[in-house]
Amino acid sequence: MSQDADGIDLDTSLGYLLKEAASALRTAMEAVLRPLGMTITHYSCLELLAQRPGLSNSELARGAFVTRQSMNVLLQALERDGSVTRAAEAPVGKALPTRLTDVGRTRLTAATAAVRSVEVRMLDGLTADDRTEALRLLRSMVRALRSGPGPRDAPTETGRD
Predict the structure, then answer these.
(1) CA distance 91 to 40
(2) Does 127 or 148 have the greater pLDDT score?
(3) pTM summary value
């Protein structure tokens, strides 16, 4: 099988490199969270609740990039272990606001330190200006992709089978 001349060169593909970086980050985060009995989703949920108390299951799922069903299972486990509390009844509509408990805050403190160590390692060697520019560029890429496909993104007819 020959490589298509119009294919993506993985050595220079920004998308491929971003995916590789995300995979390496995930692996490193999993390694430091595992000894704490946490997953990345578990940590993300606690961090979201610390920064935005009272989020609903749906809001937490969106923020942690998982399905509502997955988040509901996680929230039930976090309730059982005493990390979060949810109201018995929704104050408005069906959404049950979730809040961190003191146990959840303690667990989050340890997890945050572990995750921060990974981020420090990832950014080692970058100047403050490099970090600022990386944040600016990544935010710009996210905005561009979330704004929807433009005329240049439309599939083209290649005439090949």
Answers:
(1) 29
(2) 127
(3) 0.79
